[in-house]
Amino acid sequence: MPISERTIEHLARLANLDLDPDERERLAKDLGAILEYVERLADTEEGTALEIPSMTQLREDTPTPPLPSGVAVSVAPERHNELFKVPPVLGSERPKPA
Amino acid sequence: MSLLALSAPILADRVKKGEIRAAHVVEESLARIEAENPRLGAVLHVAAESARSAARAVDAAIGRGDEPGPLAGVPILLKDNISTIGMPTTAGSRILDGYLPLYDATVVEKLRGAGAILIGKTNLDEFAMGSSTENSAFGITRNPWDMTRVPGGSSGGSAAAVASAMTPVALGSDTGGSVRQPASFCGVYGLLPTYGRVSRYGLIAFASSLDQIGPLARDLGGIRAVFDAIAGHDPRDATSSPDSGMARRDGALRVGIAEGLLSRSGVETGVAARLNETAARLERGGARLVPVTLPDPDKAVATYYLIATAEASSNLARYDGVRYGLRVPGETVESMMRRTRSAGFGREVKRRILLGTFVLSSGYYDAYYVRAQKSRALLRRAFLQLFETVDVVLLPTSPTAAFAVGDRTEDPLAMYLADVFTVYANLAGLPALSVPAGRDAAGLPVGAQLMAPPFGEELLFAAAKHLEGTAA
Amino acid sequence: MSAVRFEPVIGLEVHVQLATRTKIFCPCATSYGATPNTHVCPVCLGHPGVLPVLNREAVALALKWGVAVGATVPDRSIFARKNYFYPDLPKGYQLSQYDRPITVGGSVPFRVDGAPHRTRLVRAHLEEDAGKSFHPESGREAATLIDLNRAGVPLLEVVTEPELHSAAQAEALLGRIHQLVMYLEICDGNLEEGSFRCDANISVRPAGTEVLLPKTEIKNLNSFRNVYRALEFEIVRQSRVLEAGDKLVQATRLWDAGTGRTRVMREKEEAHDYRYFPDPDLRALEIPARWIDEVRTTLPELPWDREERLSRTYAIGFEDAQTLAGTRALADYFEAAALEAGDGKAASSWVLTEILRLYKLSEDGWRGVRVPAAGLGKMVGMIRDGTISGKIGKSVFAEMAETGKDPEAIVEARGYRPISDPEQLRGIVTDVLNDHAGPVRDYLSGKEAALQFLMGQVMRRTEGRATPHLAREAVLLAIEARRGENAE
User: Fold this and answer.
1) pLDDT of the residue at B103
2) Which of B234, C101, C147, C290 matches a 20 to 30 Å C-alpha distance to B11?
3) Count of structural domains, chain B
4) What's the whole-model pTM score?
5) Nearest by Cα to A30 from A7, A64, A49, A60
6) Is B342 among the residues known to form the active site?
7) Looking at beta carbons, which residues of chain A come within 8 Å of C283?
8) Cβ of B317 and C92 within 8 Å?
9) What is the number of domains present in chain C?
10) Structural domain contains residue B245
């Protein structure tokens, strides 16, 4: 199925990617070709129930010692004391309650 | 004879007996890498100092009479999507350039515990997405058999390293064929373990329900030794299976041959020929050949790409420039994230993220993702049924031998189709082994692939053992 | 006006932080107030290659909730990824539940001004909390700072059906849910620390209709009072919209306690597509019936049952029973005192006034209330059987509050023993009558009130220690004797 550049733009927004017009055009073509190939799945029987396997492991509620102060942020691109630092958030609040 | 040409368990045995010093093995390995890597581009990072130090520790332990572990002194290279403390771990991506992990993957802990010497990290397609190791942000890797050709991917660095005897064994990861196909292109063995038999904790995720870490080696003994060292249940991985291997059934090995696949378009004559010879060798050794029909390979590839890209699109969301890795500045955090990801990810990765996002997006989720999962369940059921009548299935690892560098980079679909015979095993969670099956007319290696039921690694080894004895 | 024409339709979403020692998917500690970014590990930091493993205790606590509210628990529950980007969301997705949450349905009974209500629940599901973002400055130095200590803390998100029809109902239900999670000990209920958070969904509709109009989600409600105020505000605002002939739009608004208004949040043009899919690292949790049965045995008496029983057993008014059953600690205290006292009504009166006062003043919760429940009960019993007067009781109580000593010991030590010896009383009474001849004559000539005065004098002279009814007898006896004399 053909994919429009507009769809690519929407997907890029969801995936937090910037694409230049060249990339957008190329990707629209690539994705279109791939999806065409993928249409072969169209005749899969609907009746099959989706079986989701079980997790093989649970954890006991025993705490591990804390990381020493500063270690977690030591690998960060930017920090402010012990906090991760990023540019300000544009939207006023997070999308869903914290 | 170079120490590095020895089979890993034999090497370890000689080290334990004191006949060889681990320190010497390491020096040979480092020298070999220095000599070969500039032209092959297989190794991204060499951890010379820590390797030397680890080797000294092994030698000292042996001197004291302590048990140094089953892989004592064996140098090993790890694909650079496996987390190693203090060693750069890039996943072949700009977005992790310079990232130093805070923890070791479980397999790394196990290898250290087994006395193996971690020499360094190998090149891969970025985030394991690719079949040629041409998608790395840090240059391509070349096939030691023919420098104009690719080593396969995504574990091309590990395959090329083992093939050129930089180390006797290496670890790769396999999501749709990424251990087996490069093993096949480079003339070495490559194992995909049963899903859940090797912990994924510390493997940088591409597609969580398909990824497995697997060994590459020049001989079967090396495969077995590394597999034994890294397999086992891990409480840090909730997909890790507590099951151990299934016992071998008595009697002649029943080998399923998927004849239909060999006549499929795109399968090179050399590949088909070597496959048929492999079947004949097995039969000469007492195996019974049974014609089987495998599920539609095109459907399998389609199913694979829908599931793999969907999971990948989500797994790669954490690369946002906030807590580690690359950051490209921006006025707002939103623009910082977009710029970081756009600059940090290569074309193939972006392509797959977008495809995966599409597959999961509202309005398409049922038609694509859910349908793909149902198709996958059917495929697994078909294989389990098949394995009631055969012990292993024999088929090519890849339709072709190694193709030329640059041949498929502009045609993603063609690249994806290199996986057509390998995705079965990942989708169905089965173990599979690529064994060297000779060379084609151009002198390039061709691999034959054996698939077994879940936890049937012993069946693979039994079949492969037989083939090892009857050289191609 | 609008209150008559429009009826509110309200549902609540409550985020309950489960009282586990570690996070939901990794073994980092959940304790509050640690140095930023120390209660973290590669897993909750979302480092490359990490995997989640589910905390068994978080499940157990969620199951406790499910059993308490009579919800259905599936035999397999599925974890899902909710995909979106935010700097304090390390993986770029939140592990949560979509299809097959840990509980479905159930209901919560509560009261509004004594009238019984019951609201059904849609579901409750497990999810991980995100980290905390701070936006310290604006302008050129603007930045967002992030602490991931809270990222991965286990939450139970409880969703009620939109069956509430007033702000008062919503506030009462919220209070009941808060009470319940504390009774069950699945949450510490600390609103300041963010252990218990509430969002409300509200739309209004013409009274008497069944239609469900687009709802407004209100966030930033950090107290029960604010829930009430915000909903009241929205009822008026939305009613005005409809009255003006406009349409309600689905929106998210923030409550501003300072101005007493809600305001629209700045939204992206598109609604979020969270692309939920089952998490391939966790997949499904098996919940055998055995586990649920085990959990059932750990349930305490539920608050609504306890209220009922206290009221019935101790013959106290329902409102008082509600207050006493407010927390398990208070209810336990009351029942221990009532048992010892043999008089629930009398004990309740002391607990509701004096003990609650001490509790509120205490800086250390119940540990700061030094009056032992049994001690209070004993004291109430002593007043009841006349061993001490109510007035002495107050002094004894004051000393118990100070020292925590046994009331009998206090009475002994202070010499509060009542004066009940007839000899002794007669002597004191004689003195009193001799000193107050006038009132004696008044009583004898028919002024009843004079008796009270004389009684009062006897009590004063004995520092309240005269056993009242015996003192009264003695006075009457002595006065009557004098009547005879006077007659002579």
Assistant:
1) 97
2) B234
3) 1
4) 0.92
5) A7
6) no
7) 52-55
8) yes
9) 3
10) no
